[in-house]
Amino acid sequence: MPAPLIHLIGRIVDGAYRAYRANQTIENGKSAVELVQLVREIEQRREHIKQTLRATIEAMAQEIDTKSSTFAVVDRGGNSTVSRRGQENIEFKEYIERKVPFRPAISQVCTVALQMPIKVPRRIRKKIAGDTVETTIEIALKQFTASLFFEAVDEALEWRSPLKSEPNYNGTSKKALLGEPATRPKRFGSDIQPFWPRPKGLLAPDLVIVEYRHEPFETENVFAAVEIKFPGDWAKKNQLETYVELMTPTVGINPIKTGREKVALLRVPEDCTGFETTGKKSTPSEQARKRK
User: Fold this and answer.
1) What pLDDT, on a 0 to 100 scale, did the predictor assign at position 55?
2) Which residue has the higher pLDDT, 26 or 207?
3) 139-166, pLDDT tens digit by residue?
4) How far apart are CA 87 and CA 85, in angstroms?
5) Where residue 204 falls among pLDDT bands split at 50, 70, 90?
6) Cα–Cα dist 200/52, whole Å
7) Minimal CA–CA distance to 232: which of 97, 117, 108?
8) In the Cβ-directed half-sphere of 151, how many Cα atoms lie within 13 Å?
């Protein structure tokens, strides 16, 4: 990988990670020794992420002029035989089984985000023996971590990646909010947290896969809008239906069907490439053991 890409990825990942962990360091009053260990941890994490993203970026660079639909042909879809709770695998079967281009690359990034999420401190209040005690806990931001990595890939490819992380759309007009260049999603957050806050009235699928990478990510150019769910974050019918409405064209034959066929659900790790399934529904206890 060219040196500029390595430095770019390192800057994006380290920038967010150092800002969050520095805040945690201050709140927890870490010692000098612990600070040294923290620096070592960040460096190890950065090297791991660079190795993970290198293959993804090189593959995307080679495939930049190929339509996403070409890669969807070989995808087997998600595992609708696996359910996290209730009748999820039945209720959302069509979205789970949707063919998603670049599933191996997406799976790779999501798996790293699941295993090594960026963590932030959050202060909470507890009542102990009648007294209110303030303490700090760590919150793992798996979705944010995945979005950050996808954004790093897109930036490394000069905003010509087929994978657009949390792009914003006007909920009324359905128009994409384009940045500069037009293939770059417009952001309203900070350098540390670019995806939030989001102005009222905007919709942002977790991941959008465009058909033609040199063109803006308007809904007409979207091959798939993917809702990503990590453990503990459940699929919601109204959320998926909102994205169906967003992707539904105003003209054409059977526009509602077209809109539905553009929406996919990817549960991490159940629908990731490489996830082992027996072909039958797992019990809650079996799923818990797999996550350990």
Assistant:
1) 72
2) 207
3) 678 998 899 888 888 888 899 999 999 9
4) 6
5) very high
6) 35
7) 117
8) 24
Identify which has the larger pLDDT, 196 or 120. Answer: 196
N- to C-terminal Cα separation, the chain: 34
Q: Which two tokens stand for residue 203?
A: 């919709």
Instruction: Find tokens 């989001």 and name the residue.
Output: 198
Q: Higher-confidence residue: 217 or 46?
A: 217
Cα gap 230→3, rounded to integer Å: 32
Do 3 and 28 contact (CB within 8 A), yes or no?
Answer: no
